[in-house]
Amino acid sequence: MASLWGHFARLYSFICIAALAAILAASPLRAAPYASIVIDARSGEVLYAENADTRLHPASLTKMMTLYIAFEEIQRGNISLDTMVTVTKHAAAQPPSRLGLRAGQKISLRNLIRAAAIKSANDAATAIGEAIAGNEADFARRMTRTAKALGMKNTTFKNANGLTAQGHLSTARDMTILGRHLFYDFPQYYNLFSRRSVDAGLATVNNTNRRFLDAYEGADGIKTGYTVAAGFNLTASADRGGKRLIATIFGGKSTADRNAKMMKLLDLGFGKAPRNAPVNPPTPPGYQGGDEMLVADADLPETADGAGKTLRVSMELASSPRPVARPGAAPAAEVPETVIATAEAVDAMQSGIEGALAAALAPEGTLESQAAELAQEAAPAASLAVDDVELASTGGSDSAPLPDAETLAAAMESTAPLPRPGDLPAEALAEADVEPEAEIIPFQVVSASGVALSPRPARRNAPIYDEVALPAPGAEEAEPEIVLSVSTSGDRHWGVNVGRFGSSYDAERALLKTQLAESATLNGSLRKVMPRGGGFDATFVGLTQDQADLACRRLQARAIQCFTMGP
């Protein structure tokens, strides 16, 4: 009997499971919400948008912000690409996708950035955040602050890698804004997102976006993302015919579905984008160089729309009170205001005397003579008579008598005597190229009886330049070294083409203008004009692959079209 009941129970269980499977097959799980947007990267104009401001799960698109902050820290000198990062247990325990980090392991920031950008490694992204902020929670708050400063109004981050977490939300518009900032704010690192594979230290990792990069003409980045809650996400950038677009898709059903929708979205954008749009790079984050402190909404009570608060911290002193005297200290003796006025008048006269001496002794045409003239202009005029000094306490009334000759003489003796031009050694005068008899300036110190001081001597109007040491007569001049070519050793076989022109003159002119615009990366190259295909190619040669990639990215950020050429 028991055996019969056992068979019946197993049969009932099988029927229930089959029925549940049939229900699930008939009613598949609800797909993640869909959103999309495409903009003209040059001007920021929105060309098409659908649910672009709906707050959704960004998945690994989050890592774009992690990398943006890492690039900021490198730019500020707080960390370098070669900084060795110690992996924590928390970072090592992150689920796939992973680089395979182990707790206690040391790895360079360079390799962590490569793994996070190319393989979308969660353990690498968490390690980056902990290396910068100390822990992932503080780093996430900084991510949200940075998002607000970039204009990402509907984004809140809770971790560095994008794994699903409560409150970790963004929008297609905000992620597109972030992608545009990455392109313009850090063009020297943007080419990382276009690499199909890269050495990340522990292993060579492949780009999660390589299928789209290979399939769509002009695509050169930037980041994929996937979680069950988010679906298949992608922020991509492409350049065709001088038009640069950036687009984002949330909620694709699969990699193939997401890529197909992205291609249609970019095709739509290239059809709408004007050929000659104004290039208006995005404004850098507002917190750079300012006195504002942006605080993440995670640190403050939530508002209705989830927006953060802004606190303004004023560094201005409200008052500067006089220090209180120590208990029992004897009060300082009051100095008569007539003596104070006398001392001020003496200081004014001495400033004028010092300025005149400095102007007389400084060799003409040197920076020292210019500094002396500026100091002479800043000093109070020493040509005022002492009896013109107005005392603040008396308002200029006759009740406060002016100092007599003895008081003035005593004040003058209390100051260090200044050398007169006639007392200076002949060698000093010779070096100054000044004749003693011609440059002696008479000064008169007067009392209240009333003789005015002599006026200041006329200033020299010498140009501001330093003296140039000329070679001794008969000395042989070294012949200048002329570089005829750049060495092609060390893999300097790469170049950058900036266009084809109708004449060699136009090509050479374009090379000169481009080299002036991007001297930081192209100064070590050679300009070369090559006749080809009925025109003249303007090319910079003699670069390494990294130099050529960097130069072309920076030129594209300036709306200068180019492409790299390899061996």
How do the helices and strands line up, and which of them pair or pack?
Blueprint: H1 2-26, E1 35-40, E2 46-50, H2 63-76, E3 84-86, H3 89-92, E4 106-108, H4 109-119, H5 122-133, H6 136-150, H7 172-185, H8 187-190, E5 197-199, E6 204-206, H9 210-215, E7 219-227, E8 231-240, E9 243-252, H10 255-272, E10 292-295, E11 309-312, H11 337-361, H12 367-378, H13 405-413, H14 426-432, H15 436-439, E12 494-501, H16 504-517, H17 519-522, E13 526-532, E14 535-543, H18 545-557, E15 563-565
Antiparallel strand pairs: 1-2, 1-9, 3-4, 5-6, 7-8, 8-9, 10-11, 12-14, 12-15, 13-14
Helix pairs in contact: 2-5, 4-5, 5-6, 11-12, 11-13
